[in-house]
């Protein structure tokens, strides 16, 4: 006897920003520009932000969001306005604050890693991808806490070596890092960072470096009490790739691409904080 399995299909309303998050975001919005001439009333900010999230999540073109979010040109214009105002980075900071209050950022074991993304249209912050026959690509460098909560993210050309992005990534942490008096902070890195200057750099930043190859990590799993820690940053990269607008970089301007990354990190952080299901 066959069993019928019914799955819930996403509707356009599943992309709306939840009320629990909107109450955190609304105070962060920049003041709307005053109009010189009377005309149409300004589209609702919540509706427009939901439209931006729809583009981020589905990967559709800016002209493709459903009309319930307003005119596509308005959605894109508001994205540009908010990107210039730094809204999406402030949203991420607000998410980290909530997460820290609810669960606590685990600074003891941090992890850093890079991931490459195709960038067919090129633009700033792209380069020849050595793993994709020299095609244009972008590398993002991500730092997370011990549970995989994103703390910093930067982007550069795919031909940029991981080690060259370490300082930039550590300088871009968007939440106040505790002083070393509050405890030891470790940083986990793969063999791509195994260079004397990188070990010295992270030491200067107050970290104890743990740089091991994957093979070494697999061997140590057999040791009683051993706990692998670097995998959390790889999982967070996977979470980011679920936002289809980030799976392939279609934006030429690096600042627009980073704004979408910040929005994705904000969503991951708010969700992990348990503000919505």
Automatic annotation (TrEMBL):
Q: Where is the Transposase IS4-like domain?
A: 111-267
* Organism of origin: Methanosarcina lacustris Z-7289
Q: List residues of the Insertion element IS402-like domain.
A: 21-92
Q: What is the lineage of its organism?
A: Archaea, Methanobacteriati, Methanobacteriota, Stenosarchaea group, Methanomicrobia
Q: What Pfam families does the record tag this protein with?
A: DDE_Tnp_1, DUF4096
NCBIfam families found in the cross-reference section: transpos_IS5_3
Database matches in InterPro entries:
IS402-like_dom (IPR025161), Transposase_11 (IPR002559)
PANTHER family xref list: PHP DOMAIN PROTEIN, TRANSPOSASE
Provide the protein name. Answer: Mobile element protein
Please, one GO biological process term? Answer: DNA transposition
Example GO molecular function term? Answer: transposase activity
């Amino acid at each position: 006897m066959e069993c019928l399995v019914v799955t819930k299909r996403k509707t356009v309303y599943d992309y709306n920003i939840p009320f629990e998050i909107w109450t955190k975001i609304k105070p962060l919005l920049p003041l709307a520009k005053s109009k010189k001439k009377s005309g149409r009333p300004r589209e609702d900010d919540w509706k427009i932000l939901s439209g931006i999230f729809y583009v981020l999540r589905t990967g559709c073109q800016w002209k493709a969001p459903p009309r319930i979010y307003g005119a596509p040109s308005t959605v894109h214009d508001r994205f540009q306005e908010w990107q210039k105002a730094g809204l999406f980075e402030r949203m991420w900071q607000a998410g980290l604050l909530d997460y820290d209050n609810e669960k606590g950022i685990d600074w003891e074991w941090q992890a850093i890693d890079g991931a490459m993304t195709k960038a067919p249209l090129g633009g700033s912050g792209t380069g020849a991808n050595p793993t994709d026959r020299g095609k244009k690509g972008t590398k993002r460098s991500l730092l997370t806490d011990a549970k995989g909560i994103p703390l910093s993210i930067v982007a550069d050309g795919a031909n940029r070596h991981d080690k060259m992005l370490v300082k930039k990534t550590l300088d871009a942490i968007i939440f106040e890092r505790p002083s070393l008096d509050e405890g030891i902070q470790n940083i986990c890195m793969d063999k791509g960072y195994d260079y004397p200057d990188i070990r010295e750099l992270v030491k200067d930043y107050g970290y104890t470096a743990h740089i091991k190859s994957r093979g070494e990590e697999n061997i140590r799993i057999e040791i009683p009490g051993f706990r692998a820690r670097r995998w959390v940053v790889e999982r967070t990269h996977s979470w980011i790739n679920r936002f289809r607008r980030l799976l392939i970089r279609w934006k030429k301007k690096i600042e627009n691409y980073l704004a979408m990354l910040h929005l994705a990190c904000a969503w991951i952080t708010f969700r992990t904080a348990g503000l919505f299901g």
